[in-house]
Specification:
417 residues, alpha/beta, D-Maltodextrin-Binding Protein, domain 2, 2 domains, 5-stranded mixed sheet, 10 strands, 45% helix
């Protein structure tokens, strides 16, 4: 009996030592990020992970946002051993990969049986040559905001999550009342808010040098302008009108915009700055043959430094951060996680001021999120070319056809085609 008790006590001691060994080690995980001292979700992520992982302390190395990619490249080239680098831009990540600074996570993913489905395809943008060198934890995708009061006043049904672009256009024309300065929709001056929806099909891109697919979306915008259903590009540009104040004024029925606008909208309604009171969200419209709920956006991710001495711990953190549990923490701060799930949507929709209708909550569950401009050594130059031609098209200096022909010629010349 005494022997049995002694063996039981020994087993308990071994289990206790195993449970607390990690805590006794006081592991420090260093993460390089931008604006670490002023970014709320980073603080929340640190506190939540440390609370659920006794013995681990996260230390952020703060790098200014403006010079982040340049300074990180210098740090990595200098042999910095920080464990994790936050990823701001895909082109920069690909440069780090080519220089041999990233860790291939494929074995970690396979060993853990880590489910990637919640990223709805976004993780592939971090996988050059099939090597998963980072995972995304944030994604501010494009979504449709709408003013419920204007739809109620017009006796029209709210936008749906399965709307086509033709239905969207018809709805904007129906609800518009130019005589009373009620607009059916609003396009900010960016290329992205006007025509980048072409990439939502998962086929078209903005870096291939062929832009005939943009004509469809340019025509919608210009038709709505001509009908007085949205403010003209020239008027918005001349006035320097910001999209946030435009929608907040209360006379715009719909507005395509990035999800980040939710926090601004809630805050400004709460403090009485905005006239709009009752609003909702809908999935972006889609073209025929494109799955409802498809959209585009940008990513923020995390990479394991190949020079890190704590790769296993770094993987544990990234897998937590980017998965369901960490995503709920990110969502609780009002930010949009990359992970898509009902659980994450529940947290996002529970934020005070978020619309209570089921349609708005369902819009938080995109079926596919394409990257606005994929990583390429020419991404920056292509963006500049498209932006210049976009401005000329939208000011009507040139026709849609002429602008697209210019885009094709200039980008193909850049690409050496």
């Amino acid at each position: 009996m005494k022997k049995a008790i002694a063996m039981l006590l020994a087993a308990i001691m071994i289990l206790a030592m195993t449970s607390f060994a990690f805590a006794d080690e006081n592991k420090v995980l260093t993460i390089v990020a931008w604006d670490a001292n002023t970014t709320g979700y980073l603080t929340a992520q640190k506190e939540a992970y440390e609370a659920s992982h006794p013995g681990v302390t996260i230390e952020y190395i703060d790098v200014s946002s403006q010079d982040y990619d340049t300074k990180v490249a210098a740090m990595l080239a200098g042999g910095d051993t920080s464990d994790i680098y936050m990823v701001k831009d895909i082109p920069a990540l690909l440069n780090w990969y080519e220089a041999g600074y990233s860790t291939n996570m494929n074995d970690y993913i396979a060993s853990a049986g880590y489910d990637l489905s919640g990223f709805v395809g976004m993780e592939t943008n971090y996988a050059p040559n099939g090597e998963q060198i980072a995972l995304p934890f944030r994604s501010d995708f494009e979504i449709l905001f709408y003013n419920k009061d204007l739809f109620d006043a017009a006796g029209l049904a709210y936008p749906t999550n399965t709307m086509s672009w033709e239905e969207y256009k018809e709805l904007a024309l129906k609800i518009a009342d130019p005589a009373n300065e009620i607009y059916g929709t609003h396009y900010h001056t960016w290329l992205s808010t006007c025509v980048n929806y072409t990439v939502a099909d998962g086929v078209n891109t903005l870096i291939d040098g062929e832009y005939s697919d943009l004509a469809y979306f340019y025509q919608i915008v210009q038709d709505l302008e001509d009908a007085g259903a949205c403010m003209p590009y020239t008027e918005i540009s001349a006035a320097g009108l910001h999209y946030s104040g435009a929608f907040g004024n209360g006379n715009i029925a719909m507005m395509p915009m990035g999800y980040w606008y939710v926090a601004t909208l809630i805050n400004n309604i709460d403090n009485g700055t905005y006239n709009v009171k009752n609003w909702g969200l809908a999935s972006m419209p889609t073209k025929e043959g494109v799955a409802a709920g498809s959209t585009f956006g940008n990513l923020t991710g995390a990479m394991i430094n190949k020079a890190s001495a704590n790769k296993d711990l770094a993987w544990d953190y990234i897998s937590w951060l980017c998965g369901e549990e960490g995503s709920k923490v990110t969502a609780s701060t009002g930010n949009r996680p990359a992970w898509v799930s009902e659980g994450v949507a529940d947290v996002m929709s529970s934020v005070p001021g978020f619309p209570s209708d089921e349609g708005s909550k369902a819009a938080l569950l995109p079926t596919y999120v394409a990257i606005e401009i994929p990583g390429s050594e020419y991404s920056s130059q292509i963006s500049s070319i498209l932006g210049e031609e976009h401005s000329a098209i939208m000011t009507r200096e040139i026709t849609i056809e002429e602008g697209i022909e210019n885009m094709n010629e200039r980008v193909q010349e850049l690409l050496g085609k």
